[in-house]
From TrEMBL:
<protein>
    <submittedName>
        <fullName>Nucleotide-diphospho-sugar transferase</fullName>
    </submittedName>
</protein>
<feature type="region of interest" description="Disordered">
    <location>
        <begin position="401"/>
        <end position="488"/>
    </location>
</feature>
<dbReference type="GO" id="GO:0006487">
    <property type="term" value="P:protein N-linked glycosylation"/>
</dbReference>
<keyword id="KW-0808">Transferase</keyword>
<keyword id="KW-0812">Transmembrane</keyword>
<dbReference type="InterPro" id="IPR007577">
    <property type="entry name" value="GlycoTrfase_DXD_sugar-bd_CS"/>
</dbReference>
<comment type="similarity">
    <text>Belongs to the glycosyltransferase 32 family.</text>
</comment>
<keyword id="KW-1133">Transmembrane helix</keyword>
<dbReference type="GO" id="GO:0000136">
    <property type="term" value="C:mannan polymerase complex"/>
</dbReference>
<feature type="transmembrane region" description="Helical">
    <location>
        <begin position="32"/>
        <end position="52"/>
    </location>
</feature>
<dbReference type="GO" id="GO:0000009">
    <property type="term" value="F:alpha-1,6-mannosyltransferase activity"/>
</dbReference>
<dbReference type="InterPro" id="IPR039367">
    <property type="entry name" value="Och1-like"/>
</dbReference>
<dbReference type="Pfam" id="PF04488">
    <property type="entry name" value="Gly_transf_sug"/>
</dbReference>
<keyword id="KW-0472">Membrane</keyword>
<dbReference type="InterPro" id="IPR029044">
    <property type="entry name" value="Nucleotide-diphossugar_trans"/>
</dbReference>
Length: 488
């Protein structure tokens, strides 16, 4: 057997070589050679397998660790993802007309952008996919999102979660696009130098110390903004909201799902104030900023500016036509979107402060005189006796009712006037139409008769008479006239 193996295929050369070795090797070694070969092969095989296994195990540990830690490396991309995001109760195929029309403004103006709506039915799956153990492994975020029941908190949180996970543009369902996305970043800038695009919404810093208006007096709007994916500021915002609501729940001694929030808590906890403060804090933290970043940097801007890679657009861009903050109107060149506010039902669920006699200071819409009067009235009210206060409350209530009644009557009168005008216009149009018809008919008849060879002598008289006649005609006479024509 050994001989057969050592002289394969009877090759004379190989046969000679093996014969030489055979002569030098001891007979015992020669007999055990195949065994040695097998052992060496086995050793090598196990050694390699071990190496292979170690390598995969290390990968299995190292790879996810890089993407599951809290401090995920910042992904700086050159371009913003070309994706428009909205969130709503239902998908676009089930949109009411008013939402559909507004939503279409985004897709028709931007055929090169993708469009997606997250709904009440699929939002949790999106959050689980991106933030679950297979994604960013932030199961605390998934659990939090699942526990929260306040719709407005969920809506705020979801836009931040989307922008962190994927980026793009987020717009509320009642925001209409006025210009294509290409206009959102002015030509003089390079997308490479920008991570986020926001617009000023309220710029009324004179009221920054007002007890009610103060927290909302300076803000970027968070119902339209753009992000590149995985910006640390978005994650900070998400974590801040979680910490805040958990604390509120703790103070109220209830679980997350049962937290009761008023208007101001929402504004400052998850809404515009939270958003603005997080962005400004992030800008201020950035290494390349020498001066302290405060609202002053964004007050009364003549044009957009980039601060710490955030492009801040003027108030006209996203919030034109507010009647305050020097916001101009929607016809302006700089106006990019129009907020219709028809989806903002949440203030009714989370009431604002409403003085029993003087109502909401917000209804002043930041007019100095009005706010000052409100403040003065409220301060004087506090000094009155309870009886006096009740008297004023009743008085103001009556005033409001009278005002409402007057407004209602004015509205009705205006509607009636408009209807009358409309009726008169229609009547006049109809009369003019009939007159024209009559004139054309007469002209046709005249032509016919002229062709029959009647003398052209009377033609001029007839024309004038015929042209004037129909205007003076009344319904009954018209019929007579038609009969006459027929009998002619
Ligand atoms: C996810 O994070 C938890 C800690 O929060 C950790 O124990 C777990 O190993 C992580 N999972 C993966 C797949 O990395």
């Amino acid at each position: 057997m050994l001989n057969k193996l050592t002289s394969p295929m009877g090759s004379p050369h190989l046969g000679a070589t093996s014969a030489q070795y055979r002569n030098r090797m001891p007979a015992q070694f020669r007999r055990l050679l195949p065994l040695y070969v097998v052992v060496v092969v086995f050793v090598l095989f196990f050694f390699n397998l071990n190496l292979f296994r170690t390598a995969t195990r290390e990968n299995a540990v190292v790879q996810p660790a890089a993407t599951t830690n809290n401090d995920i490396p910042k992904v700086v991309r050159d371009q913003f993802p070309k994706k428009i995001w909205q969130t709503w109760k239902v998908d676009p195929f089930a949109f009411e007309k008013k939402n559909l029309d507004v939503a279409k403004s985004w897709t028709t103006k931007n055929p090169d952008w993708r469009y997606e709506v997250l709904t009440d039915g699929n939002d949790i799956h999106y959050v689980e996919f991106h933030y679950g153990a297979d994604g960013f492994n932030r199961t605390d975020i998934v659990d939090f999102y699942r526990s929260v029941k306040a719709a407005i908190v969920k809506a705020d949180l979801l836009r931040y979660l989307i922008m962190y996970a994927e980026g793009g543009l987020y717009a509320d369902i009642d925001v209409e696009s006025l210009k294509p996305m290409a206009k959102f970043i002015p030509e003089r800038y390079n997308q490479r130098d920008i991570d986020m695009v926001v617009g000023v919404e309220i710029d009324e810093p004179d009221w920054k110390d007002h007890p009610i208006l103060g927290p909302k007096s300076r803000s970027f709007c968070q119902w339209t903004f753009m992000c590149k994916p995985q910006l640390p500021v978005m994650m900070r915002l998400i974590e801040q909201i979680m910490a805040w609501l958990t604390e509120v729940a703790h103070q109220q001694g209830v679980e997350l799902a049962k937290v009761d929030l008023d208007f101001d808590q929402i504004i400052s906890g998850t809404g515009p104030s939270a958003f603005t403060n997080a962005i400004i804090a992030e800008m201020d933290n950035a290494a390349d900023v020498k001066k302290k970043i405060e609202w002053d940097t964004f007050h009364d801007m003549d044009e957009s500016k980039i601060v710490s890679r955030v492009l801040v657009l003027t108030v006209e861009a996203f919030a034109a036509g507010q009647g305050h903050s020097n916001s101009g109107n929607h016809d302006a060149r700089a106006a990019l979107v129009k907020h219709h506010y028809h989806a903002s039902g949440w203030p009714t669920k989370h009431p604002r402060f409403k003085h029993p006699a003087y109502g909401e200071v917000e209804s002043c819409n930041w007019k100095d005189e009005c706010v000052n009067k409100w403040d003065k009235d409220v301060a004087e009210f506090e000094k009155l006796s309870p009886e006096e206060q009740q008297r004023i409350i009743a008085e103001k209530k009556k005033e409001r009712e009278e005002l409402e009644e007057k407004k209602k009557q004015e509205k009705e009168a205006a509607a009636k006037k408009k209807q009358n005008e409309e009726d008169a216009r229609k009547k006049k149009e109809e009369e003019e139409r009939l007159a024209k018809e009559m004139k054309e008919k007469e002209a046709a008849n005249r032509e016919k008769e002229a062709n029959k060879g009647k003398g052209p002598v009377n033609e001029d008289d007839k024309t004038e008479e015929g042209a004037e006649k129909p205007k003076e005609l009344k319904e009954g006479e018209k019929v007579e006239e038609k009969k006459k024509e027929k009998t002619k």
